[in-house]
Structure formats: C-alpha cells, structure tokens
Amino acid sequence: MGGERSHSGKVVILESTPSAQSTAHHAGAALAVGMPYGVCGCGYYTSPTRILDWAHGSGLLQQDGQLPGTKFTDGPDYVSTIKKAIGASVSDPLLDRDVSSFAGWRGTAEWTNSAISNGSLPGGGEMGTGTGTKGKAVLSGSVTTPPQPSAQRSLATQDLAAAAVASNAIVLENQKQGNPESEWGIDTASTNIEGFATDISVDNGNTVSFKINTNSTNYRIDIYRLGYYGGMGARKVTTIQHTGLQTQPNPLRNAATGTVDAGNWAVSASWTVPSDAVSGVYIAKLVRQDGTFGENQIPFIVRDDASHSDIVFQTADETWQAYNGWGGANFYGGNGPATGQGAGRAYALSYNRPIATRDGVGTYAGPQDYLFGAEYAGIYWLEQNGYDVSYMSGLDVDRYGSLLLNHKTYVDAGHDEYWSGQQRTNVEAARDAGVNLMFWSGNEVYWRTRWGNAYSADGTPYRTLISYKETWGPQGVSLDPTNEWTGTFRDPRLSPPAIGGGNPENSLTGQLFKVDDVGGNLASIKVAYDDANLRFWRNTSVANLQPGQTATLTKNYLGYEWDEAPDNGFDPAGLVKLSSTTLPVSTYLLDYGNTTGSANATHNLTLYRAPSGALVFGAGTVYWTWGLSDNHDNEATPTDPRVQQAMVNLLADMGIQPGTLQSGLTATTASSDHVAPTSTITVPATVTAGSTVTISGTAADTGGGVIASVEVSTDNGASWHPATGDENWTYSWVPAIAGTYTIRSRAVDDSINLETPSAGRTVTVTGPTFTSLFGGATPAVVNTDDAASVELGVKFQSSVAGTVSGIRFYKSSLDTGTHTGSLWSSTGTRLATLTFTNETASGWQNASFTSPVTLTAGQTYTASYHTNVGNYSTTANYFLSNVTSGPLTAPASGNGVYNYGNSAFPTSSFDQTNYWVDVMFNPSNANNTTPTAVADAGDATEKGGVANGSGGVV
C-alpha cells in the first residue's frame, strides 16, 4: 500500500449482502456487511479486505481477523463469511471462513441504545460517527488510511493465508472438547458384537446405517470423530441406544470367488449426519451394556461434497479390506478358491463385513494394514496444526473422482497397496489439472482392482472389491473374466489384451515398490550433504549439514515396506531425489510381484512437478507419518521435527498454510522462484562407435534457488536419464552405431522448475568396425524387476562366413557389478569368453575377445552375458518373427534365452523376449554391412520376463 489516501464519503453498514442495484447506489462509499449476520468487509482504499467477526454483547462489538479480498477500482469490497444465509460473496471466493481465533486484528466499537456510533472502525485509523436506522447505519465523516500500516495490520498482511485458515472448520472443530482414547479406543475387537456401515462414506446431511450382529439386547453405539482435540484424539458426537434382540442370518458366501457377504443382515441402527458435521474419519464404537463385556469399532468417513478445503485426505480402505480375513479368506489366503501362489485366497472381497484386519484376522493381516497403522498419525498431525482438510475413502476417489478438483492437494498415507484402475485414472486427472499430490505411503498403487455390486439381494454398487491377482496366477492364463487386468499395475504379460497392465506406479507417484515386509527390521532415512541445501529441508537442522556429513532421521520410518525411485523409463520428468538410503535386504522384489530375494536396495524421498504445475511428493515408505505423530499402532516411535517441518515447507510450497502451527515449527511461504534453471553441454564433436564418451556440463539457477538434478538425452529428447552431479555434472555414454546424434540436457532446481532444453549439441559417431543385430536400438524396458543371477542371450546365424570379435549388451543403471560375455555353439560348447571393463552407468556396453572367433555360415550360435544382480533390459514379444540385420539373423523360434544361476549355456525362453544381448560380427569379405535399425516388435509399455529359479515366471 502506498502513501496516505483518504475518502470523504459514506461508510455504510448493511444487514445483508448488497444487490447489484444497491452496489450502484452506494458507489463511492466504503461498505460493510454487519449485524445480524456477523460479517463486515470494510475494504475501501484497503487491500486486502478486513473481515470482522462481530460479537454483540453489553454494547460491545468485537472484530478479529482478515481475509484476502479483491479490490474494486474506486469502489467498495463486499465479503461474506460465517453465515451461509448471507449469500454469495461479490469479491472474495473464501466463503464461510470464521476468523475469530486470529488475534492480529482486534478492536472495539461502542454502540449506544440509540444506535449512534462513536469509535474507531478497524484497520488502523478509519473514524466515523453517525446515526443508525433500521437495518442500516450511515457513518459520516472522513475515512483515512495512514501512510504506515499498524503493526497488527502488517502482521496480518504478511500472513494472509494464516489469517484465512485460522478459523477453518478443522480449527473450530478441534477447539471442541475431545474424549480420551481410553474411552473411544479398544484393545481387541470382541466377536460377540461386531458390524459394519452400509456405505464406507456418507455426505453430511445424509444417513448412514449400521448392520450389527450380537446376542445382546442392550448395547449402545457411540459415534466419534477422529482428530486432534487437544491431544485427546477423538470427540464423541452422539450416542445411539439399542435395545431388543436382533438375530442376523449367516452371511452369504460365493464359492467361485471366495466372497463372504453379510449384506443380508438387517439394519440395526442409523444415524442422520448433521448437515454441518465436519468431514472426517469417524468410528462407531459398539459397547455391550448387558453385563457381558464386548466392544468393537466400525470405521466410516463423513464427506463434505461441497467442500473446497485445501487438502483432501484419502483413506486406504481398499487395503483394509484386502487383508481382512473376516468370514474365511482375504486376498492372501484362507478358504478361497485360488491355487498356487496365495493358495486359498479370495478373488473378491465384500465391504459388507466387519473389519477385523487390525486384530490379525486374515493371512498376513495386522495393525500395519489398517487405519491406526499409519493413516491416523497423518490425520492427527494435520488437524493438530489446523490444516484445512476434508476426507474421502479410496472407494470415493473412484466413484466421485471429480471432487478431487475442488482441492489444492490430495494426501494418501500409510499402507495403500490396492487401487482400482479408475481410482488411479482420477488421481492422475487431478494431477494433470493442477492438484498437488502427497504420497505419505509405501507399497502404494501396487495391485490393480475393480469394483462390483454386492452379492446380497440389494445388489448395492461399490460393495465388492475384485482382484484376481493375475500376477500370481498360472502364466499365460487370464483369470479375471472381464477384459480388465487385475494383477500388479506394472505387470504387462497379459496386458494387452487385458486393459490396465504394464503401467508401473512410479509414473504417478515417482516411487516403485521393491522392499517387501521387513518385519522388525525398520530402518532410518538418511540425508547426505549434497541434498541438504534443497528448500525441502529449509528451517531444519538438515540444512546445516557440512561437507561429508549425513543426517539420520529417527529410526523406524523406513518400513515396514518401502519403495525405490528407479530410472526405468517410466519415471516422471524432472524427478528430484531428496534423500538417499541404501541397505541390504532379504525381501527385495525380483520380478512383477511373485518372488523376493536378497539385494541392495536404495530408498529416496522424491518430488516432481507435473506439466500442469502440480507438485507430487513420494515418501516411498509405509511409516512416513510416524515422523509426524506418535499416535499409531505397532512400534512406539518418537516424532521428528525435521519431518514435521519438511511437510510444513512442502505444504507451503503447495499454497497451504496451517491454522494452528504446533510449537517448535516455523511457518514458511511458497517459493517465489518461478524461473527455470539453465544448463550447458560439453561433448566431443566426433567419437567412435563403441567407445565410452563422457558428456559433461554445468547448470545454474538464477531464480534464487539451487540445482537439484540434471537429466541428459542422447537421442534428441526421446528418452532422459539422470546425470551425476548438479552445478557441475557428467554423464557416460557408449554410442552403438555410426550416425549423427543430438545431445540435450535439462536441469531442475529445488523449486522444481524444469528447464526447457535447448537445441543441444550435435555429435558425429564414426564406424562401427563390426555388424550387429540391434545397432543403436533400445529396449522397451531398461530395468526389469528381477534381481537374480542369470545368463541372458540371443540365438543368431550369419548368411556369410566371418568372425565374432566381441559381445554387446544393453545395461540398466541397476545392473551393477561384474559382467561376463560368452559365445556358444548350438550344442552348448563355450567358444570364447570375456569380461566387460570400463562400463558406463547404462546403455550399450561393448567388449572384445582376446582373439576373434570364426563362424560358419548357416550355423546357429548363441551370444550371452551374465549378471549377478539381474535388473536386465527387456522387450517382450520381440521375436515374433525373424529379426535380420545385414548378414545376421536372429530366428523367431524360441529366441531370447536365459539360464538362472552361475554362467552356463542359456536354453530357456519366455514370451519371445529380447534380453538385448548382441554380437560384434565381421564378415570375411572385410566389407562391413551397414547395420539396419530393426522395428521393436514389443509394445512400448510392455516388459519381458524370464522364469525364476524355482520354475515360476517373473
């Protein structure tokens, strides 16, 4: 605001929002909406608009708070808050936001019984006197704004967002008296009283019903809302008493799917949710009152479909049900129809069942798979800090996905393993429309599901969760009777023709599940000095690290299942790794979802920005929220202010502020750096095919941030891979064949601004001195999820005599360690072997035999390489027909071969998969045939696989 500005005119206080005609009539006046609606917006010559919370009593009017408003040129502002009856706001979109708890604005105006005002209007110096008439008080005099705003106004102006949220529904709700956990919690669910809600969620103002099975004739249902409530953790909303005996029939069972459905039970009680009920996760606590002990809980969500809260929090209810073995089977075992892996599992599970997951009812079930494992800790912390949040179930995100667009940020927490295809589509659509995503979760978006109707006579939609878990089924056989894939999202082997496979979750979350249940081996997340200067860690002790130092977050947050952030061709552009922790594990996922084994795994916290501008955070661990709150089941674990502050920082960067920030944390603001960084490239103008080329460069950020990552493309932007370093970076490249290549780079800063790459540098590659099958072609999947020791090869023939001088293979960044290459006769005799040296991080690798091996035209040979750690490159269905390059041919029949274990002649094959092993062939006429680029017969989203050591298929 500039120097002193004044207006000699009227200040009009109205009882209702002015109409368009009234607005015109009062043009040039400073208007305020006041008694009896509890609102005042005095915004003339003032920006932002002041919002007054009027409290009438003993002749005193008190006003508190401020919200941002739109200033009309030479005209008044109108703002309506608190009272919905006042109608729509003319200038301020933040309707119905009470600001009474914000103390930055406070003043009084005394009114006499004759309705004559003497005193100051709020805002630092406006004065007026006048005589009121019914419904309107006209104050005459001069309205003046001083050149220097008051300290109170400065405070409010600097923290408008805090003022706006200070009295959001969550802040007000948590000011109410809570109830201790000793009252609303339970130690173990009783089996003599149990039930479920007829819908997992209900919009406020509607009715939720409960079906309860008990032999008690006297019990009550206490309804609680989960939150903070001064540390109590929940608040009792109401109690429903039930008397009389109700005998429920045996639940229905579908033998074909193993589904148990208690939808045939009768309704025992209902609750009409008040229209002003605050959205949240609620529990109905069942308590016997007949002298026999019995208690249980029924979780459900109260939605607010009209809400435009900053945050929408999604529960992981599909995962609660996936592990729920009530009635006989879950998705892991029991008395269901499945055979083989997960024998006895069900193919479909009903929401018409009590949820017994927390008490370990069901194969592998436990507290870690339920609400109080990690989700509740996130809920507790968000509400403790007064964040403006509303709630939806995972099921709701499928059926009401468009509601996500009403919010700034979507939050997913804990163990959220099971997602429907439509649920994922809706979350991706929200991201692409600018909604930020926070995945405070691990093993997330892993199994693909779909929805069906209830088996009970009512056939209620969205009551049956279906997943045949086809990744665990007989290979080559589709179990799901529909055309939808219900295996892991990443598994492409039957998709197509099925819809929905071959879509790894890291394209959405930035994270890929890799480390299965570690049991009690929970670990610590580490942040090295190189990551400490990222703005994500501002206002924490991590930011103070010195060179060579590493920060270790509180133990137990890394587990019980966690993810990696691989360079697999599906990773989002500009993905920034905020931490790095490498550990040996024995439960490393080796394939698409069947097999685990020993390996070194690397965890990273990640952040990227979608083209829409949405930020997407991936914690990559189930127990991330344990750093926010210690209110959770399983291991008692202290919170960590570094984790809490990092989330305050990130939410601020998403445009979200807390209303009641907890002591010890620092309020912060969104980044003002909107300028993308720049990068330069240094590379030789001419290089030789097969040689190792070091591409180097620099990167700089002029917007006030720091460089967070650099990515390099050697194919003119068709694919990108992370470089090593930041302000000074390098990337190793082995060009395979002669030609002209365009090298491009793009940097990303710590505000996640991604550089639009320049035209890059042109490199001429000379040679090669050999003929190969695949030339410079690249695999559909660079890193296949298989960490086993394996020999991989290709069968080939030559139409002319010649020699093989060496072996090539395409390397993924995770295929580390020593690699050997071999040439074999058709009968399995090893003709020559070599060891690869001077390898690059990824891409084509070449090595030569000590002496070339002479080949006979028309004979079949096998070229292979051996890896101790797997993670090889693949393209499925590549050898559906012969592949020819000059004199070389890779026959279609049974090609793409492998052998697990130590180096040995590979003979097994799967899905005509190309494992990207090649030969360096020299025809005996000494005139090299120009390699031919061959078409990739595999779909770009497909992954190949090979049989694992136990005979299964990965």
UniProtKB/TrEMBL annotation:
A Pfam match: DMFA2_C
Region of interest (Disordered), ranges: 116-151, 932-954
Stretches that traverse the bilayer: none
Gene3D superfamilies found in the cross-reference section: 2.60.40.650
Domain DUF4082: 777-917
InterPro entries noted in UniProt: DMFA2_C, DUF4082, Ig_E-set
Domain N,N-dimethylformamidase beta subunit-like C-terminal: 220-633
Coiled-coil segments: none
Compositionally biased residues, Polar residues: 141-151
Compositionally biased intervals (Gly residues): 121-133
Protein name as it appears in the record: DUF4082 domain-containing protein
Source organism of the structure: Rhizobium pisi
Lineage start: Bacteria, Pseudomonadati, Pseudomonadota, Alphaproteobacteria, Hyphomicrobiales
